[in-house]
Task: structure prediction
Amino acid sequence: MLRPVNAVEIRILAGLVGPCPTCGGGTLDPVFDGEGFNFRCPACAACWHPERGWVNQVDASTCPGCRLRPVCRPAGPPAVA
Result:
């Protein structure tokens, strides 16, 4: 059985995810989507989900319980620097 993740573990995971793949912004902020946690960039509003060593941009339509859904940046290809 999986145990719940606590706030400290979520912050550590946000740091491990690293800077935003879209804009290179700083530490991502954890957001609860109604079922689990994703990580949102405070600079560009892109939202990411880490899984199995990768991060994928989240499609806002899959996050019905997230309070930030109205301002979430639509999923698309990462920006090239």
The chain is about 15% helix and 20% strand. The mean pLDDT is 75. The two ends are 42 Å apart (CA to CA). The beta strands are 29-32, 37-40, 47-51, 54-57.
